[in-house]
């Protein structure tokens, strides 16, 4: 009996140690200066982070523990003579499919006969490794909707054998009539308010184009008494700019519900914040959540973090983490990466436990 008890105690101790070894401690912000961060948990067991850095392309960081990150250098070079791209390389996302790695991104398109100030389109590049080198397979964007688009996000519906592409139509030359626009005009602030809207569309299996026409997923509220209007219009009401954004979408499924997280307000301002909407199908219709925003600045409460937005969701075992960029009083205008736990309650409401700047733990698989 004593031997059995001793063995049981030893086994419990070993199990406890094993659990502790799978938890790592970190403090936000991470030592990575990225906007629009995206983390891939690759089949090799490592983590790879990509983001907007202001370079003519994208670089990757790698990590074994989500805490310590190694710069892998530039993994995709844009603005080359053979590329369709010019500049403004934004919001990369990398997907591992069939032993290949696909990098989706937005950039200004060199085909610009009318000399538009914003000429963003979405394209992709492919590599054999998550550290590249990534090469464009198409000498053009994936599709041309006739207006500038950014923030590509893909959802793979393997049950139905479909791939969906979500993106944001830019505010550029897109003035929209709303009660917020009427109010701003009455104040003598702005003659018009431009908006960005999120669309979704089925993508061809080989990523060479789209199937059918893009469908509107989300847009800013039209009525001032809409419960989302206050937080989604802060860039206008704070007189930052005459634009309202709905961008940086990220779709994932939890149970039978599709969650689309998105960012609103000026990405370069303090009011950038995250909300979400839910649907029973990948292409909606989506209903915005009553508890929005789920992530926003903490400076009104005495914190140091603002400009929280453009997130993605990382699932590790049964745990969910929100990866996003933000600014702090110490980093100034530089965007840096944050990771905070997120959860979905039994009532279906999504919560992000952030922004945080105190030590936290990540449970690694």
Task: Describe the protein in words.
By secondary structure, this protein is mainly beta. The protein has one domain: Glycosyl hydrolase domain, family 43 (Tachylectin-2, Chain A), CATH 2.115.10. Helix content is 10%, strand content 44%. The chain has 4 helices and 24 strands. It has helices at 2-21, 179-186, 229-232, 234-237; strands at 23-26, 35-41, 47-52, 57-63, 70-77, 90-97, 100-108, 120-127, 135-136, 149-157, 162-169, 194-195, 197-203, 210-218, 243-244, 246-254, 257-264, 273-279, 287-288, 305-316, 319-328, 336-344, 350-352, 360-363. A 4-stranded antiparallel beta sheet has the order 2-3-4-5, with no helix packed on it. A 4-stranded antiparallel beta sheet has the order 6-7-8-9, with no helix packed on it. The longest helix is centred in the N-terminal third of the chain and has 20 residues, at 2-21.
SSE layout:
Elements: H1 2-21, E1 23-26, E2 35-41, E3 47-52, E4 57-63, E5 70-77, E6 90-97, E7 100-108, E8 120-127, E9 135-136, E10 149-157, E11 162-169, H2 179-186, E12 194-195, E13 197-203, E14 210-218, H3 229-232, H4 234-237, E15 243-244, E16 246-254, E17 257-264, E18 273-279, E19 287-288, E20 305-316, E21 319-328, E22 336-344, E23 350-352, E24 360-363
Parallel strand pairs: 12-15
Antiparallel strand pairs: 1-24, 2-3, 3-4, 4-5, 6-7, 7-8, 8-9, 10-11, 11-13, 13-14, 16-17, 17-18, 18-19, 20-21, 21-22, 22-23
| Low-pLDDT windows of residues | 1-21
Percentage of residues in DSSP E strands? 35-45%
Shape-level CATH architecture: 5 Propeller
How far is the N terminus from the C terminus? 35 Å
Total helical elements:
4
CATH superfamily: Glycosyl hydrolase domain, family 43
Please trace the helix and strand order, writing H or E for each element. Answer: HEEEEEEEEEEEHEEEHHEEEEEEEEEE
Task: State the shape.
Answer: globular
Q: Domain count, please report it.
A: 1
As for the CATH topology, it is Tachylectin-2, Chain A
As a whole number of angstroms, the C-alpha radius of gyration is 21 Å
Structural class: mainly beta
Q: Characterize the largest beta sheet: strand count, sense, and whether it forms a barrel.
A: 4 strands, antiparallel
Mean of all residue-level pLDDT scores: 94
Helix content: under 10%
How do the strands of the widest beta sheet line up side by side? 2-3-4-5
